[in-house]
Structure formats: structure tokens, C-alpha cells
Amino acid sequence: MVLVLGIETSCDETAAAIARGPGENGVDVVSSVVASQDELHARFGGIVPEVASRRHIEMIVPVVREAMTRASVSWDDLDGIAATTGPGLIGSLVVGLSTAKAIAQARRLPLAGVHHLEGHIYSAAIGRRLPLPLLALIASGGHSHLVLVRDHGRYEVLGRTRDDAPGEAFEKAGRLLGLPYPGGPRLAALADSYRGRLEPMPQARIAESWDFSFSGVKTHLARHVRGRQLGDDERASLAAAFQESVALALAEKTVRAAEEIGGLPILLVGGVARNRRLRALMEERAFSAGLRVNTAAPEYCTDNGAMIAAAGIYRLHLRAAETAELDCAANLPLRDWAGPDSS
Ligand code: KG4
Ligand code: ZN
Fold first, then answer.
1. DSSP of 205-248, one letter per residue?
2. Is the CB of 170 within 6 Å of ligand 1?
3. Count of domains in the chain?
4. What is the pLDDT, as a whole number, of residue 207?
5. Would the CB of 243 count as within 6 Å of ligand 1?
């Protein structure tokens, strides 16, 4: 078992966590601190990259210190450091990775670079072992990826979004309905409050591909609301219809893919995996197909340091640490780091 500090700064959360593993129950989180920048970006109605990186610089040291204090550990107790190397906002990534490198260098600790999507996958290894092999749906603000995880560090991307990511679509739909930033969780809450009849909006069907598309449903909503004053009930009904369409598209395709590749267990992770309707629909569809669904706890679905620590724990456990040349990239592809015999 190793004790690892995980650092995540790919977008607008400055996050650090201390976690221990791997054990019988996967990874144990000892502390997890997330400093959200939501309030800062709210007045712009979206994330401003330059503002995000400046705030990361202000917050990274206090957030790491807080994670260490809450875990009651000292630098000497750590066995390694993990940090997100991409994809994400480059100015934000640099802050987290430089901090991780500085600590690793000063304390002579091994360093693991973690792909952000890999971090989301390992959010489900917190509290239990990953049921490998599996099919992961990573639904977030920046991604909608179907990834076949054959083993630790062995990934195959089967499908992705062709336009908006689902979280991005939720954000845009929230704006169209006049909801304040961040629109995603607010739209979900409004949708869940609706008790009337529900008609899902038309959704794009991309045949012979595991790709997704969410721009059609967003355009449908935009056309519907353009130039109109919406009453509260109509706003809630549109929110519910939008949520239903996105959740259905994600659940149907994921379950079909899992069936087709041999009935693999499904992993539902990423910020949009917090969505209660999506979780329920995925369970329902998977149950009908005789498949199992694993989800991360809601607090580990949105960006956090614990998922990066969890991925780093397996990486450091199964493979040598990275060198000081480790770099970050805004468009980092998800690559294998392990061979077929890694475990
Ligand atoms: O994984 P995450 O924290 O960041 C990225 O890697 O992108 O995901 C953030 C996204 C945001 O777009 C947010 O609107 C969405 O997750 N989100 C939700 C809910 N909670 C967060 N979308 C739908 N329903 C929710 N309850
Ligand atoms: Zn994320």
C-alpha cells in the first residue's frame, strides 16, 4: 500500500487529496479538498481561462496544505505524488503539475502523471476495486467518452462526442432557460422538480458508431425558447425534457456497447454522472440487459484530487515513476501505460 498526494487543476477546481491503496477495497481517501472557482466565473457566465489559472496560483499551496493537515500526515509519510497532465486548460494544468514536481523534487518522492479521463475512471476505485475489464462512460463538462478498460493502464476509446460534451450541453441549456451559472446542476434540480408529462426532445442517432452528439437537442431547445417569455412550469418541463433526452442518449448507447463487447460491467463517472436521472436510467437499462453498473460517489464525480491520487496509486504500484521531464498538454490523448501483463 502506498500513500499518495493527488493534485488536480485541469479546469476550474483547485483540488488536492491524500489517499492510500491499493487494497482489498481499492483506494481509501484520507482527505480531499476542492476549492471551486464557480463564484469567480459566475459573473462572466462561463470559465475564463486566464482568471482560472491566476486563482489556481493563489489557491494551490493553501489547498495542498489543507489536504495534508486534514489527513494529519507529514511529507515524510508520503510515498508519492500524482498530478493531472491533461487534457485541460494549459495555464491551469501547469500550476498543478509544477507544484507536484516541486514537492517531488524537494522531498525526493516518485511522481506519476495522470490523464484527466483516467482520473475520472479511477474515481470509481475509491472504496472498491475496479471490476476489470469494464466499459466506462465518462460524461463531463469537457468529455463524453466510452472507454474500454481492459486492465489497469490499458484503454481503448470506443466513442466520443462529435460536438458538445453532455456537461457543456447542460450548461448551455441552463443559460437558454435563464438559469444562473453553473447551469448544469441547476437545470438538473429544476428538471427533477417537474412532475408533469414528459416528452423527450429529438436526439441525433449516429448509426454504426459509439459516438454521441448533443448539439441537436440543444438547438431544439434554443429554437423553442427564442423570443419567448417562459412561465415557471414551462421552464421546468423543458428542463426535464432536455435532461431526459441527454440521459437517454447516454444510457442507451452505453448499455448497447457494453452488451455488444461481451456484457462487460459499466462504469458511470464524470461530473454529469452526478445527474440523478442519468444514474437511474443507466441502472434501469443495464438491469434489463443483465449488466452491472458501478458509479463513483457523487462528490468524486466532479473534478477532485482523490481520483487523481487513486489513479496515481495504481500507476506507482504497477509501474516506475515518471522523470522530471514530465510535461502537460491541453489535448493530451488517453494512452496505455501498461502492457498486457501489467497486473
Ligand atoms: O468532470 P467535471 O467536474 O469537469 C470536467 O472534467 O469537465 O464535470 C463538470 C460538468 C459541468 O459541465 C456540470 O454542468 C456537470 O458536470 N454537472 C452536471 C450535474 N452536476 C455537474 N450535469 C448534469 N447534472 C448534474 N447534476
Ligand atoms: Zn473532469
1. --TTS--B--HHHHHHHHHHHTT-PPPHHHHHHHHHHHHHHHHH
2. yes
3. 2
4. 80
5. no
